[in-house]
Amino acid sequence: MHSEVKGTRIIRVNPSKPEIKSIRVAADILKKGGTVAFPTETVYGLGADALNPEAVMKIFKAKERPPDNPIIVHISCKEDVKRLTAEVPEKVTKLTERFWPGPLTIVLKASKIVPRVTTGGLDTVAIRMPSHKVAFALISESGVPIAAPSANLAGRPSPTIAEHVIEDLAGRIDLILDAGPTSVGVESTVIDMTMNPPVILRPGGTTSEELRKVLGRIRLHPSVRARREIKIERAPSPGMKYRHYAPKAEVILVEGELDAVIRKVQEIADEYIREGKSVGILTFDENKSAYNQVVVKSLGSRVDLKAAAKNVFSLLREFDRDGVEVIMAEGMPERGLGLAIMNRLRKASGYRIVKT
Questions:
Q1: Would you call 221 helix, strand, or coil by DSSP?
Q2: What DSSP assignment string belongs to 309-349?
Q3: Starting from the edge strand earliest in sequence, which strands make up the sheet with 326-330, in order?
Q4: Spatial distance between the Cα atoms of 222 and 203, rounded to a whole number of angstroms
Q5: What residue ranges of the chain have pLDDT lower than 50?
Q6: pLDDT at 231
Q7: Long-range pairs for 95-100 at CB < 8 Å and ≥24 separation?
Q8: Which residue, 14, 105, 229, 298, has most beta carbons within 10 Å?
Q9: Ramachandran angles phi, psi of 210, nearest 5°
Q10: Alpha-carbon distance 253 to 316, whole Å?
Q11: What is the pLDDT of residue 242?
């Protein structure tokens, strides 16, 4: 099904068996230097030919993205890593064998063919191979590596359905491939393999626990668990330097022991309600009934972090559509996907965090 919004074409595609005719339409746009939003297993990305500086500049313009924020390069063939990088350490091969295709981005020294606009002016390049069939088919058919950050206006919650892309970027890009909701919901994990030991720059869909099983010792960049803004001169990964993932509403994150968190969330919510403000609470199924006089949205069960990761960005956008002015969010343990979710919520709050 084809449609158009503000001059941006939208094509529905089958997520498990993408129609080759639709994929070719999108691939032709990329080959001609245009921009295409497409689903990956993590979030929707906004793609352009990674080796065409003018095309990549269209991404920055459409998103209103700062030029020093590097863009991940998506590939469909592992051999492309050799072409895009100066060297491939043995540990990288172990990672790609275990985690690709999938939600892991690897930072390596860039080869000369990668434009500096794509790398945010750095001498490193971030590369990943997505597992989503639409993304994989699009990269393969276009015949070029695709530079693709999340398909949203800079700073907004990342898009997990095509409607989020339309909301932010209709009229700014050439085409959107709509294949329904993404499955992971938070972006890929970014690991810097130019460092020893390797450093996780952004937590995401591949957990640190999984990476340690393959690599042994790894470090977390201070920004991963930061509870306040850290000054970063040159960010080697997206999601590090600027405010990200933020809805229009003010976000307050409450961290600590569960019972104390629930009490504090309601207490702060009551204060805002007395001021006449509309309040939303981001919680879990087990805690929904604890709150009153507020708009309550659940990430799912506290024991199902995959569901929480899948839902977090869409729920932040839903609060905006509901006209909520303040969102109170419950914290969670930083185990598994919890680390990535907490990283996103802290950034969405602008580090407005209450400890109980």
A1: coil
A2: HHHHHHHHHHHHHTT-SEEEEE----STTHHHHHHHHHHHT
A3: 295-298, 279-283, 326-330, 250-255, 353-355
A4: 12
A5: none
A6: 74
A7: 95/191, 95/193, 95/211, 95/214, 95/215, 96/129, 98/214, 99/206, 99/210, 99/214, 100/128, 100/129
A8: 105
A9: -65, -40
A10: 13
A11: 60
Report how far residue 312's alpha carbon sits from residue 341's, in angstroms, rounded to the nearest whole number.
Answer: 8
The predicted pLDDT at position 67 comes to: 86
pTM (two decimals): 0.96
Looking at residue 210, its pLDDT comes to 98
Q: How high is the pLDDT of residue 268?
A: 97
Considering only CA atoms, which of 253, 250, 229 is closest in space to residue 240?
A: 229
Distance CA 242, CA 66 (A): 9
Helix, coil or strand: residue 268: helix
Cα(340)–Cα(187) distance, rounded to whole angstroms?
Answer: 9
Q: What is residue 345's predicted lDDT score, i.e. its pLDDT?
A: 96
pLDDT at position 243: 66
Query: What are the CA-CA distances from residue 186 to residues 166, 195, 251, 300, 344 (Å)?
Result: 19, 24, 18, 15, 8
Tokens 């989503």 sit on residue: 132
Measured CA to CA, the distance from residue 126 to residue 257 in angstroms comes to 37
Cis peptide leading into residue 130 (ω within 30°): no
- Which token pair is 198? 């390797």
CA-nearest of 288, 289, 284 to 304 is 284
Written as one letter, the residue type at 244 is H
pLDDT at position 355 = 95
| Three-state secondary-structure class, residue 306 | helix
Both structure tokens of 230: 């850290």
Which pLDDT score, from 0 to 100, does residue 244 have? 76
Q: Cβ distance 144 to 51 under 8 Å?
A: yes
Beta strands in 50-145 (DSSP E): 73-74, 104-109, 124-128
Token reading at 74: 């998506």
Q: What is the DSSP letter of 288?
A: G
> What was the pLDDT predicted at 257?
96
* One-letter amino acid for residue 50 of the chain: A
Q: Please report, as a single letter, which amino acid is at residue 117.
A: V
